[in-house]
Amino acid sequence: MKKTLIVYGSTTGNCQEYAEKIAQQLGVNEVKNVADVDADMLSAYDNLLLETSTWGAGELQDDWYDGVETLKSTNLKGKTIALFGCGDASGYSDTFCGGMSVLYNAVKDSGAKIIGQVDADSYTYDDSESVVDGKFVGLAIDSSEDEDVIDNRIESWTASIKSEL
Asked: pLDDT, tens digit, for every residue of 63-78?
């Protein structure tokens, strides 16, 4: 595996927990809060796994507002990027994991290879800005699901992207 960094934004600790589970599954040692990264750090990695939670009406986790600007100022051409996000489909079914779409829009035209899209049919929600052509732009983690379901989604997703990293 090439040099890989997992970057998360977490307010309640859930996203940090998911980022650490994904790191463990992939054997990645570098996991950072988005508040602690800059463009130089991002440039030093071949692979970036980016995670945000979704708040309110499909908005980013607070630390990611500056983080998105950092992403946009970083040369991402030739990098491999995978996205993952957490949301609550039972409480916010109409904006489920919408924050992930902001990350996707920040990197989609950067020249990076985006991997890890997930079929949206296995989720129960009403709407999401993070669904493109029937797939989430990355792993959507529904924090209202049982922990076993979340762990299975993480395990399946990491297995599906590992060979591309």
From this structure: 999 999 999 999 999 9
pTM of the model as a whole: 0.96
User: How many residues are given for the chain?
Assistant: 165
The Cα–Cα gap between 26 and 116 comes to: 13
pLDDT single digits (tens) 8-37: 998 888 999 999 999 999 999 999 999 999
Cα separation values, 22 from 73, 102, 120, 150, Å: 26, 21, 20, 11
| Residue (of 72, 59, 48) closest to 161 by Cα position | 48
Count the helix, strand and coil residues of the chain and give each as a percent rounded to the nearest 5.
35, 25, 40
Q: Which residues contact 153 (CB under 8 A, 6 or more apart)?
A: 118, 139, 141, 145
